[in-house]
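Technical annex B. To support the medicinal chemistry partners, we prepared a structural model of the target in complex with phosphoenolpyruvate, based solely on the information shown next.
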Amino acid sequence: MRQALAGQGASRGLAIGRARLRIAHAIDTREQTIAHTEVEAEIARLHAAIAIARDELKALRDRLHGALAHELGEFLDIHALILDDPELLHGLDALVRTGHYGAEYALRLQRDRLVAVFDGMDDPYFRSRREDIEHVIGRVRAALHRGAGEPPVGFAGDILVTETVGPAELAQLQARGVAAIVTTAGSTLSHSAILARSLHMPLVVGAHDALISINDGDALMIDGSSGEVVREPDADDLRRYRAREAELQREHRDLQKLRNAHTRTRDGVDIRLYANAESREDVASAHALGAAGVGLYRTEFLFLQRPQLPDEDEQFRAYRDLVLGMNGRPVTIRTLDLGADKADGSGVVQPDEPNPALGLRGVRLSLARRSLFDTQLRAILRASGYGAIRILIPMVSRREEMVAVRTLVHEHARDLRTEGHEIADQFDIGAMIEVPAAALALASFIDQTDFVSVGTNDLMQYMLAADRDNEALSDLYSPLHPAFLRVLHEIIAVGIRHGLPVAVCGEMAGDIRFTRLLLALGLTDFSLHPSTLLEVRQIVRDADLARLRRQSRALLRARDRERIHAWLDESIALPSRPPRRRGD
Ligand code: PEP
Ligand code: MG
């Protein structure tokens, strides 16, 4: 029977598909014992299933190509390693041999044992390894029930319904055919949501009852913009779905006319739209859409899902490809920002700390782990020989950090030149403003930064003391707070006073609900995911900037969310469509 569930739209797109439920601890085999005489045959059956799982992983690995091949390949390698782990294999044999358990039950016991070990650890790296264990055991279990040669059950076109989804597994799920994802927890600004948008994977988060109300195999319809989830859609839903699909295609066609058009307000002020790029596809779209450059390249995504750290050459090639992909437009490379929900696959970088969001993150980690930072800086500087590069430093909280980073960059530049590398004559080094202390003390290190980029995702979390991933706080975690707007306005004003370029690169910059608000606060540089670049461009072109800025006083006077919303509603009503301009 039809049932509608409400969630939050975290990555746009419509999808219809069968529901595939992923429930933690879903292997629920009851205790099952075998006779003494069956032991050897049962072990042989188990080993045959492990061999099938191994072959499947290898076949999957061989089929990979394209931009995600590298990332996904690392992931599959980890699974292959787990499958070959002697402890896992001996443990299984011992359970069958001495406990006389059937193969399925032995798998369950072994899975429970390993998962309990990982559950006892706080480290996000180990938490992500726990999921790998579940996947590997699940694969062996599926193979036990199939013979060799039978294809594994894929997700082709399915909609995964699960409690949470980690950034590290999204690409793999997509490669396995998952069409969309619904989670019961999670937030629209988590790194998983950011990556889902980058992969164009529709995602609805916070659909609380999804795992209770939806059954495996139900037909599902989801809208990744509105957050609507419909179980067993009826004829009206399907009509609505088709109409919405056609509307999206129309909008898409209209927006495509704005590729490479100016981003100029009605009153003639040029606004710069940079792209946040996480993949080669993003770089290609940024270029094709006429982005002013790349405003944020999150290098930590190079460090996820892999057993060892990328070395200088590997990083250099990634940064060089990025620069070449933008064909002369500037590229802003952010140095490593591991921490909180972004765990490095190698597990060797991050310390085990009780509160990683307030811990050794971003530049703090880079300065504490000098060899790691040295390698990265050298790779970035070497790529600067191929085109304009800006270096962006995450999680800056004080002047001393910028001084230390600048000194290091200049030392490395000198060494590289001595070694004969061709690198740029000079590089802009900028601070990310995402810690309230840096926002309030910006003037104190203004001479140490060539530009700033406001990381509103973190600035909001630290200013409002609201975890960006905690779905229970999703109402509080919003830029529409008077304190947040005032601080944002102040950062932009300090930039204007000192002639310092200020960009916003948090998700807010690509959210069309906030474009006019940011223009009113004086922002001229936006860095956003390419998927909304054309829509933001459209709003900028329709905007009367002088009028919006005059309205900013009313915005900054607003005392609560309701009044800020009222301001937003009025600002939408303000300008009408612009007259056609020449040359667009
Ligand atoms: C931010 O904090 O706004 C930001 C852009 O960085 P990240 O989302 O990667 O933490
Ligand atoms: Mg951040």
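Notes passed to the chemistry partners:
Confidence is low (pLDDT under 50) at residues 576-584.
The two ends are 51 Å apart (CA to CA).
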